[in-house]
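User: Predict structure, ligand 6-O-phosphono-beta-D-glucopyranose.
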Amino acid sequence: MSGTLENFTIVIFGASSDLASRKLFPSIFQLARWGHMPENFRLIGVGRQEQSHEEFRAFVRSRLLEHSPEAAADAARLDSFCLRLFYARVDLDDPAGYARLRDQIMSDEGNGRTCRNLMFYLSIPPSLAPVVVRNLGAAGLGGREQSCTGWRKLIAEKPYGHDLESARELNRVIDEVFEERQVYRIDHYLGKEPVQNIMVFRFSNGIFEPLWNRQYIAQVMITIAEDFGIRGRGAYYEEAGLLRDIIQNHGLQLLAAIAMEPPVDLDADSIRDEKAKILRSVRRFNIDSVRDSVVIGQYEGYVAEKGVAPDSKVETFAAVKFHIDNWRWSGVPFYMKAGKNLAKSVTEIVITFRCPPQNYYGPSGGAACSTPNQVVLGIQPDETVAIRFGAKRPGEQMITDPVFMKFDYRGTFQGEGLTPYHRLLLDAIEGNQMNFIRKDSVEHSWAIIDSLKNAIDGQAPELYPVHSWGPESSRIYG
Ligand code: BG6
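Assistant: Predicted complex:
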C-alpha cells in the first residue's frame, strides 16, 4: 500500500507530551508497519529544548519500547522507523522559530519531496494553540497558503478551548489560517469501534429505529466511569475539572450519536450536520434547573494530589440530567454520569424502553413493569450490544426474570484491531472528517457546559469515597 501513498510530513507540536509517547508514536509506528504510511514519510517533533535529531530519535525509541509491544518485538522496523524522525526546536511564541521550521520542512531533508503535503498535530495545552496557528500562518505554513501545491491539514487535540469564548477565538484564528475542510478536531472516543458502531446499529437495522424516540424510550443513561484518579495531571485538572475533561467532549459526543437523526448520506458534513443539530437542541441550564439536574463530586484525597490546591473546589465527578428539546426526544431524560476514582472502569449507554400498557407479570396493579426492556451498548472494557427482556422462569409459576441477548465484538470479529488513534490518524491522512468535530459542534458543546458551570458557580462538590459510585445524592441518576 505504501507505494501508492502520497508522501507527507507530520509535524507534532508537543512531541515530548505524554499523549505523543503513549498514543501518537505507537499509532504512527503501527500505521507504518501496516503499510498505511508512505515509505518516505517524515515526522518532525517540535519542542522547546535544544536537541539533535539523534537525541530525539533515541527519545522516541525509548518511548516506543515502553508503549508499543509491536515496536519492541521488531528491532529492524524500529530502526528504519527512527530514520524517518527529525527534530525542530521552536519557542512557540517566537516567529523566528517557525521560519526555521519552514526552512527545515522545505529543505526536503529525509529526501522524498515530503515538503508539499503537511500535517500539523497540536498536542499542546489549548491556551497555546492560537499562537501556534498564527505563527504557522505568518511563516507561510498555513492551509490558505496559495504558493503550495500539496495538501495541508491541522489536527487539534482536545481540550479544544477552555470555554465558549476561547473556543470561538481559537476557531476564528484557525479560520484565518486554514479552511474548515483542512481542520481535524480530534476526540478519540469517536475512533472507538463500539462508538462507531452506534450509527451502524441504529441505521442499518430496521427493528430499532422505529422505536428510537420519545414514544417508546423512557430514558437514556450514559456512564463514563474510571476506577483511577487524575494520574498526576493535577495542574491540568485544576484548570479543567471533569465537566470540561470528559462531559464537554466524550460525553456529549456519545449523546449526539445516540440522539441524532439519520443523515442524508454518509458524507462527513451530512453526519456532522445532524450532530450539530442535536447539540443545539440540548437544553441549556440555569440556576433553577441545575438544582434537580446536576450533582458534582470530588473524590476524597483529591486535594492532596500533586498540583492541586488544598481548598480546591474542582469536580472529579458529575451526574447530569440533559434534555433534548426536539420532536424525537421531548420529555426523555438523558442521564450522564462520569467520574474519576469510581468503583470500576466502565463506559456504557443504557437505553431503557417504556413498559407495556398492562403489567401482567409484575406486582399486581403496578404501573411499572418488572423488567423494562433495555438496549445496553458496552463501549469499554466490554465491547458489546445486549438486549434485555423478560423471560419466564422455568417452573409452575409465572415469574419473569430479566435475561440478555448479547453480541460481543471481540468474540465475533477476530484480527488485529485498530486503536482509536490508528483509526483517526488514518482518517485524517485519507481526508475523511466524518469522525472529527466540526467547529459549530464544538461551540454548541461549550455553550451547554458554560451554562451548566455558570449555574453551579461557587457550588462546592460533594466528597465521595475512592472506589465508590460517587456522592450519595447522585444515586437518583441510576
Ligand atoms: C481523556 C481524558 O480525554 O480521556 C482522561 O483527558 C480520560 O481524563 C481519558 O481518562 C479516557 O479515555 P480512554 O479511551 O482511556 O477511556
